[in-house]
Specification:
With 386 residues, this protein is α/β, with parallel strands linked by helices. The protein contains 14 helices and 14 strands.
């Protein structure tokens, strides 16, 4: 008799273009081999493809997201009750959630139905993400120890996130680190001609344009260099789209600055450039940095918490002087919000094509360490409590 697969529900806010959604999209084709999978999202924002074997439930199909605290409070009870009803009616065995509000809903599920295994995933570094949002920080410090500890297990995508949750948010349940997966393909990578000596470098960044991503830092760094030696492209959009365009104009960089908005194939754009730059003040585990590595693109990254140090230097701590950069094992690191250090790193890549080639080759090899089979087995094991 054929044994039935465990019923797995994945709960998150939406299925848009963020790193969390990308992580789910990479897992779904693997999860369907071992589970009956339902993807449950709060709102109807769908960017990534969903395998036909995956059921889709939208809890609030006609509701738009809002930053209002009143909206979130009113919405929470409705979302929880709908999800609770779904869990019971479908006989879900494992409920897996990502991001704080889904995680707290999952906590209530476990509190009311002990037969359901609940696994939660934190995707950002809370102490830094909420440091300028005092109310959110207070709520996280209040709710995380109360609710996160009600679940069976937690995993994040960084050792630093787990340490932060333990030390500053009182999380005591079993925790693991499971990095984001990526695939590498020799047919989708920079070729040797990309590393020839040149007097012009094409820089690229990808991500939502908001304060934590700090793309203005790249424009500030470019303004310290010879205008015309560099082009800078951003993939994505966000609340600071117009602000960055204005900043580029004020710095006389308008002719060298391109905003392409949302794109469907990030890698295809990455391989058209010479260097990827991550400028963030804080990250969980930046998927786009991993994507840049996977096409053999030399990278420059701020040494923000968390992710870049783990990816680019095996998590070995570094001491970067103010206004300087360091050559890490798999890319270049600069201090957070250090325009001078970033400008020197950019100029270094322009002046040393052999270093760009070296780091491009190292990047491609590094990305192989985050292969899907290895990452998926870790996810499967924590879901099944193996």
């Amino acid at each position: 008799m054929k044994q039935s697969k465990p019923k797995l529900s994945i709960l998150t806010i939406d299925y848009g273009m963020g790193g969390t959604e990308r992580f789910i999209s990479l897992l779904l084709p693997e999860l369907i081999n071992h589970f009956e999978v339902t993807l449950v999202i709060f709102y109807k924002y769908i960017h990534y493809e969903i395998p036909e074997e995956v059921n889709l439930i939208i809890l609030k199909p006609d509701t738009k997201k809002s930053r209002s605290y009143l909206f979130k409070i009113r919405n929470f009870t409705s979302l929880y009750l709908k999800y609770k009803k779904f869990i019971k009616s479908e006989g879900i065995d494992i409920s897996f959630s990502l991001l704080p509000i889904p995680n707290i809903i999952n906590s209530f599920i476990h509190m009311t139905n002990k037969s359901v295994r609940t696994v939660i995933s934190e995707r950002c570094y809370p102490s830094i993400m909420y440091k300028d949002q005092k109310m959110q920080l207070k709520l996280a410090k209040l709710f995380f120890p109360i609710f996160y500890n009600r679940n069976n297990a937690l995993f994040s995508n960084s050792e630093h996130i787990n340490e932060d949750l333990k030390e500053n948010f009182g999380v005591k349940i079993p925790m693991e680190v499971i990095y984001n997966p990526i695939g590498t393909n020799d047919s989708i990578r920079l070729d040797e001609s990309s590393f020839k000596e040149t007097n012009h470098l094409k820089l690229i960044n990808a991500g939502t344009m908001y304060s934590a991503k700090n793309q203005k830092l790249i424009l500030e760094a470019m303004s310290l260099l010879k205008i015309g030696d560099f082009d800078f492209t951003i993939l994505g959009n966000g609340q600071l789209t117009e602000t960055l365009r204005t900043q580029a104009n004020e710095l006389s960089l308008s002719d060298n600055f391109y905003q392409l908005g949302k794109v469907t194939d990030v890698k295809a754009h990455l391989i058209e450039h010479d260097c990827f730059i991550l400028s963030s003040d804080t990250e969980g585990f930046p998927n786009v940095l991993l994507e840049a590595l996977s096409v053999g693109l030399p990278v420059i990254s701020t040494n923000c918490l968390s992710g870049p140090l783990e990816m680019l230097n095996d998590n070995v701590p570094v001491n970067i002087g103010e206004g300087e950069f360091i050559k890490a094992k798999y890319g270049i690191l600069v201090n957070v919000n250090d325009a001078l250090g970033m400008s020197k790193a950019i100029q270094y890549y322009l002046d040393h094509p052999e270093e760009r080639q070296k780091y491009g080759e190292l990047a491609f090899e590094r990305a192989k360490m985050y292969s899907m089979p290895k990452i998926y087995n870790q996810v499967k094991d924590i879901l099944l409590n193996n």
